[in-house]
Model the fold of this input.
Amino acid sequence: MTETEEIARVTVSLSEGLLHELDKRFVDQGYASRSELVRDMIREKLVEEQWADGGEVVGVLTISYDHHQRGLTEKITDTQHNTYINILCTTHVHLDHHHCLETIIVRGKPNEIEQLATKIGGMRGVRFSKLTRASMLEL
Ligand code: NI
Done:
């Protein structure tokens, strides 16, 4: 949302059950207002749809892996070099003697990004892998 964008007020009719579920999340997740929770849910849905549409999207692949797994670091790097996806940036952190954490920010088609995430996530020695789906839309 841009700063100059005006806020529109809408009234939504909900069943008691749905409102109860909404308020549970509102309290549990520490939102400042119901509106902010609803805005976040709508944004999440729009990003999901954008990924389903197959157009260009952005994502962040977060992985942690064992630095001492033979050949793994090279395999991860080679996979990034051999992809059609635009790798915008990678950040590597040496967590301790054994463990590395890496974030790979990518831009491309959803299915290509998901394939890259599955490929890297499935490598022997990769302990954690999570793809965060993001959007280039102004939401
Ligand atoms: Ni490292």
Summary: Strands lie at 57-66, 86-94, 99-108, 126-134.
